[in-house]
């Protein structure tokens, strides 16, 4: 009996030592399964953007890096595949970086209006200028999706509400400044690069929306131009 007991105790001890290893190994395939290890059509571009080795072949490490980017910005499916939406998002970021401190280099936003808020849908950028002098920005924005685009053209801010609540979407719209029907500048907690986009408003990060609130007034000009990528 003593020998049997000893063997039972040793067996339990060995089992206790091996269970965590078995669980860890058992979760590895599940974690890998959440990643799409297929090489995507924009593999090299995405690898370069993320600072990964640029070989054009999807690896598990590539997939995890891509998936982390997708999760951060709400890109679905977040499976680590270097597809169209992911690369479009990255391309927009690159265009925003290239704008530097001279977003109106091409002169598409009027410089003869005095203080004006410019919105470039193509680069998903906005800034405030006074004549040709940059007053604030440029900052990334999230504009309307294909089904509810942010309308282009010359507008004016006509109503402001610092703690606006949208009864249409049942959401808070802090620092709301309306310039075209129900379309307004306002802050949001979503990523500026979260597809497919807003319901038509120009979404901004909280600090940027607050700065716009402090710089703009009713009657100030707004100019929206370009076309949002993917619409």
UniProtKB/TrEMBL annotation:
<keyword id="KW-0808">Transferase</keyword>
<dbReference type="InterPro" id="IPR038063">
    <property type="entry name" value="Transpep_catalytic_dom"/>
</dbReference>
<feature type="signal peptide">
    <location>
        <begin position="1"/>
        <end position="32"/>
    </location>
</feature>
<protein>
    <recommendedName>
        <fullName>L,D-TPase catalytic domain-containing protein</fullName>
    </recommendedName>
</protein>
<dbReference type="InterPro" id="IPR005490">
    <property type="entry name" value="LD_TPept_cat_dom"/>
</dbReference>
<keyword id="KW-0961">Cell wall biogenesis/degradation</keyword>
<keyword id="KW-0573">Peptidoglycan synthesis</keyword>
<dbReference type="Pfam" id="PF03734">
    <property type="entry name" value="YkuD"/>
</dbReference>
<keyword id="KW-0732">Signal</keyword>
<feature type="active site" description="Proton donor/acceptor">
    <location>
        <position position="186"/>
    </location>
</feature>
<feature type="domain" description="L,D-TPase catalytic">
    <location>
        <begin position="114"/>
        <end position="225"/>
    </location>
</feature>
<keyword id="KW-0133">Cell shape</keyword>
<dbReference type="GO" id="GO:0016740">
    <property type="term" value="F:transferase activity"/>
</dbReference>
<dbReference type="GO" id="GO:0008360">
    <property type="term" value="P:regulation of cell shape"/>
</dbReference>
<dbReference type="InterPro" id="IPR050979">
    <property type="entry name" value="LD-transpeptidase"/>
</dbReference>
<feature type="active site" description="Nucleophile">
    <location>
        <position position="201"/>
    </location>
</feature>
<dbReference type="GO" id="GO:0071555">
    <property type="term" value="P:cell wall organization"/>
</dbReference>
<dbReference type="GO" id="GO:0071972">
    <property type="term" value="F:peptidoglycan L,D-transpeptidase activity"/>
</dbReference>
<dbReference type="GO" id="GO:0005576">
    <property type="term" value="C:extracellular region"/>
</dbReference>
<dbReference type="InterPro" id="IPR006311">
    <property type="entry name" value="TAT_signal"/>
</dbReference>
<dbReference type="GO" id="GO:0018104">
    <property type="term" value="P:peptidoglycan-protein cross-linking"/>
</dbReference>
<comment type="pathway">
    <text>Cell wall biogenesis; peptidoglycan biosynthesis.</text>
</comment>
